[in-house]
Design brief:
Layout: H1 3-25, H2 33-45, H3 51-73, H4 76-83, E1 87-88, H5 107-122, H6 130-140, E2 146-155, E3 158-167, E4 170-171, E5 209-211
Helix pairs in contact: 3-4, 3-5, 3-6, 5-6
Region (Disordered): 1-30, 185-214
Protein name: Lasso peptide biosynthesis B2 protein
Organism: Egibacter rhizosphaerae
Length: 214
């Protein structure tokens, strides 16, 4: 085999590898150097935690990976059904007690919730991981009747969506603008929902709505 033919074969292999990488990127996009440093920092911190905390963190990490793939390839309602997550699209207007402090969780549930928060804080994929965090938290807190709630609000000419977790009708994590998220009708949305396969948005809400990380 001549050197020229070998070079051509190598070029072909490189091309095949790049195409395969492009297909994989649709599910899990490339991670920036800054995001990799954040993940490494989280891994170093595990040495200072107990074995039980580390096992919960690893479980939450696995759940985040599953949720990331499912959210990217399935519409919102189907993703929730596949993951076994109760989903409520009534926004804050449908919540039972939105103006009260987060409900106290039993120690076991609180440890699980903190593991989810740790991974969500450093999750390198996507912008605004509130939907992934909500799905994962509901899966780990299903014994305590956790529900994922999603609301929409208008920000100027744009629409933003936010997902959060509630236990007994009370959100686990509040934000200053929490009450602003309502139903599509309260946000003035009248268009028919359309799916966006492969995007990081909630797929059963109208096109053009971005996920906010309030």
């Amino acid at each position: 085999m001549t050197p020229r033919r070998m070079d051509r074969r190598n070029d072909g292999r490189r091309g095949m590898g790049s195409n395969h990488g492009g297909r994989s990127a649709r599910l899990l996009p490339r991670v920036s150097r800054r995001a990799r440093r954040r993940v490494l920092r989280m891994l170093r911190r595990t040495a200072r935690r107990s074995l039980r905390e580390n096992l919960l963190t690893l479980r939450a990490l696995a759940e985040f990976s599953l949720a990331e793939v499912v959210v990217r390839v399935l519409p919102l309602r189907r993703a929730a059904r596949l993951l076994g997550v109760p989903l409520d699209l009534q926004g804050a207007s449908g919540a039972v007690a939105t103006d009260r402090d987060p409900p106290p969780l039993p120690p076991r549930a609180e440890r699980r919730h903190q593991a989810v928060v740790r991974v969500a804080r450093l999750w390198p994929f996507g912008r605004g991981p509130c939907l992934r965090e909500s799905f994962v938290a509901c899966r780990l807190l299903h014994r305590w009747n956790a529900t994922t709630r999603l609301g929409i609000r208008r920000v100027g000419d744009e629409l933003a969506a936010h997902a959060w977790v509630e236990v007994d009708g009370r959100p686990l994590r509040l934000s200053e603008e929490f009450h602003a998220f309502g139903t599509p009708s309260t946000a003035g949305v009248t268009q028919t929902p359309s799916p966006h396969r492969g995007s990081q948005q909630a797929h059963d809400i109208p096109a053009g709505i971005r996920i906010s990380d309030q």
